[in-house]
Amino acid sequence: MMSYEFGVAEMLTKINILREEFTHIHRYSPIEHVSSRVKSAESILRKVQRKDVPFTLDGIREGIQDIAGIRITCSFISDTYRLAEMIGGQSDVTVLETKDYIARPKPNGYQSLHLIVEVPVFLTDRVQPVRIELQIRTIAMDFWASLEHKIYYKYDRNIPERLLDELTEAATAATMLDQKMERLHTEVEQWKGTTGGTTDRFDIPVPAELVELLARHRPIIDGKNGDGRIGGQ
Questions:
Q1: Does the predicted TM-score (pTM) go above 0.85?
Q2: Inter-CA distances, 182 with 24, 152, 187, 215, Å
Q3: Would you please indicate which residues are annotated as catalytic (active-site) residues?
Q4: What is the spatial distance between Cα 93 and Cα 72, in angstroms, rounded to a whole number?
Q5: Which pLDDT band, with edges at 50, 70 and 90, does 228 fall under?
């Protein structure tokens, strides 16, 4: 269980680095929210019995892929694929499995990118590969999935047919919203490209002394001050 906790911490660090770097370079973050969890021992045992997984440590590691999970909420559909590509492109991250429920939604309308990745966790006496399930989806997809999950358990997995139909309709509406917001986002990016500027540029000359001061103190500015002051002054 501890190795899975360490694996999640390792993966969260990677995701936060990607978010900070992407924001620094593009002045825009594809990640809206990140959450994580590790299944409890009781939950793992129930799933072992339900899936008839061999009751050994190796059998559980191999048969239960979602013991550790991270959910990443993105702004737009294109961001989900961009983020999956960035994560999979890291040399110490091995993508074992990809399920694209965005291109091919589940019958109930569920949409998300599911990745099973493996990351190395360096312990005192060994390197332990840890598998983590990543769920990457948009805000609209996450909103729908969260409500569907609550309804699913409220009816003890036996949702009335009428509600299933309405949930499917809601999933279609969420997809249409995602597509419309994606189109608007693309139009804004194209407009920025044609105008060659943004609305928050400074049109005043910056003194050379200030540029040198900022360059000299940049590690402090990029640190944890949080108040925008230089060198704590």
A1: no
A2: 22, 29, 9, 37
A3: 133
A4: 17
A5: very low
